[in-house]
Amino acid sequence: MSLLIVSQLSKAFGGVRAVNEVSFELAQGELLAMIGPNGAGKSTCFNLLNGQLRPDRGSVRLDGEELAGLPPRTIFRRGVGR
Predict the structure, then answer these.
(1) Total count of domains within the chain
(2) Does residue 82 lie within any of the structural domains?
(3) Residue 55, domain member (yes or no)
(4) Going residue by residue through the chain (82 aa), what tens digit of pLDDT does each one get?
(5) Domain region containing 28
(6) Residue 19: enclosing H or E segment and its boundaries?
(7) Which is the most buried residue in 3, 7, 18, 66, by most CB within 10 A?
(8) First to last CA, the chain
(9) What's the CATH code of the domain at 19?
């Protein structure tokens, strides 16, 4: 069973799509690395996961609870942060 499910996460700034339909699932104890050049959207993706930014589209679910749209402090208390 997946602990973290990210589905079709997207974010654009003006006409620039920073994150485009990112999806992945992580089970408890699994690790995921995001690698890429400057400007690839890694930091934006993390900011979407931890609530610093709201996604334009998609969902972030932790243990079945939707996190997208919750305040960053609430998300941090659930265990998601940098």
Answers:
(1) 1
(2) no
(3) yes
(4) 899 999 999 999 999 999 999 999 999 999 999 999 999 999 999 999 999 999 999 999 999 999 988 999 999 999 998 7
(5) 2-77
(6) strand 16-27
(7) 18
(8) 23
(9) 3.40.50.300
